[in-house]
Design a protein that fits this description.
Mean pLDDT: 96
Structural class: alpha/beta
Function: Catalyzes the non-heme iron(II)-dependent oxidative cleavage of 2,3-dihydroxyphenylpropionic acid and 2,3-dihydroxicinnamic acid into 2-hydroxy-6-ketononadienedioate and 2-hydroxy-6-ketononatrienedioate, respectively.
Cofactor: Fe(2+)
Pfam families: LigB
Bound molecules: the ligand O=C(O)/C=C/c1cccc(O)c1O, fe (ii) ion
CATH topology: Protocatechuate 4,5-dioxygenase, Chain B
Helix content: 40-55%
EC number: 1.13.11.16
Low-confidence stretches: none
Number of helices: 11
Shape: globular
Subunit structure: Homotetramer.
Number of strands: 11
Strand order of the largest sheet: 6-3-8-2-9-1-11-10
Length: about 325
């Protein structure tokens, strides 16, 4: 089995409210390089860890973790819509292995995913169904949330399962780092918004357009400095990325949910996708990681980063 990892921030604002052309070109070149790397690796299985933003998962029944046995992307903002090519038997076996490791993961035969999954799949794989993909949802916006430590344990259990497969596996983590887009919260929502958070599946095209317009206009205000949204936090971002590069799992376990919100913003909890992906890689043995890009991009409301990592076992076997 060979295994590599690619982690990346996502933002649905790409293509709606872009930074200056030099920065956009920088990110596009980076994304093209990631795609080329993945093509060269030619994965036989992709496991993607990502959050949802009240498009597929709602408070009518909000799991902390969910493995998709069948999944469709809804196509919010400019993200691709359509089915993912999920290898059902492997997804089921993975769920059993995770449950056997005492992580109570949910299972979905009709998972709906949004730009959190779809953007990463498009960037890395060139589409939603070009490779077999198992989507793993991690709750990152809907309090109460499980701890970062639990995401590490989820990733570890999945990594140990993957180690038993004789396949080339690509691990993907999509989300973060510091950012606080205008995602509503149930605690202080009016009845109409609360209903949307509890049971807002498949909104009307008008409701979807209004939501997207609110985010774009929030990004304009955020960029101009006239916003109550929590600012990006490059120092916190770099520290988190360094923790992952070093594999400092004690530091991960020490990250409280309150500290993540305070330092990184309400959507910084998406770092859980990175934590799970790195923990899955770590379950296979020591790894070597590199931070390929970091820049706070206010136009996208994103502490925007990409990292790649390889199992040292893979490096050794290639070098031998
Ligand atoms: O779901 C939305 O409407 C907005 C999500 C968003 C906005 C900005 C940065 C991100 O990472 C997001 O997921
Ligand atoms: Fe997000």
């Amino acid at each position: 089995m060979t295994i590599i990892l690619e982690c990346l921030s996502h933002t649905p604002l790409q293509g709606y409210h872009d930074p200056v052309p030099e920065i956009l070109a920088e990110v596009e070149a980076l994304q093209a390089a990631m795609k080329k790397r993945v093509q060269a690796f030619d994965p036989e299985l992709v496991v993607v860890f990502a959050p949802d933003h009240y498009n597929g998962f709602f408070y009518d029944l909000m799991p902390q973790f969910c493995i998709g046995v069948e999944a469709t992307s809804i196509g919010d903002y400019k993200s691709l819509a359509g089915p993912l090519d999920v290898p059902r038997d492997i997804a089921l076996a993975m769920s059993e292995a995770v449950l056997a490791a005492d992580i109570d993961v949910a299972l979905s035969y009709r998972m709906q995913v949004d730009h959190g999954f779809a953007q990463a799949l498009e960037v890395l794989l060139g589409g939603l169904d070009n490779y077999p993909v198992i989507p793993v949802f991690i709750n990152s916006v809907a309090p109460p949330m499980a701890s970062c430590r639990r995401s590490r344990l989820l990733g570890d259990a999945i990594g140990r399962f993957l180690s038993g497969l004789n396949k080339r596996v690509l691990l993907v983590g999509s989300g973060g780092i510091s950012h606080e887009p205008p995602v509503p919260e149930i605690a202080n929502a009016c009845a109409e918004v609360a209903e949307r958070l509890i049971a807002g599946r498949n909104p009307t095209p008008q409701a979807r357009a209004a939501r997207q317009e609110r985010t774009i206009s929030a990004a304009r205000q955020f960029t101009s400095g006239d916003s109550s949204l929590r600012p990006l936090n490059p120092e916190w971002d770099r520290n988190f990325l360094d923790i992952l590069a070093r594999g400092d799992w004690m530091a991960i376990d020490d990250m409280s949910n309150d500290s993540i919100t305070e330092q990184g913003g309400k959507s910084a909890h998406e770092i859980r996708s990175w934590v799970a992906a790195f923990a899955a890689l770590n379950a296979h043995g020591p790894y070597k990681a590199s931070l390929d890009y970091y820049r706070p991009i206010p136009e996208w409301i994103a502490g925007f980063a990409t990292m790649q990592a390889q199992s040292l076992r893979l490096v050794e076997s290639v070098a031998a």
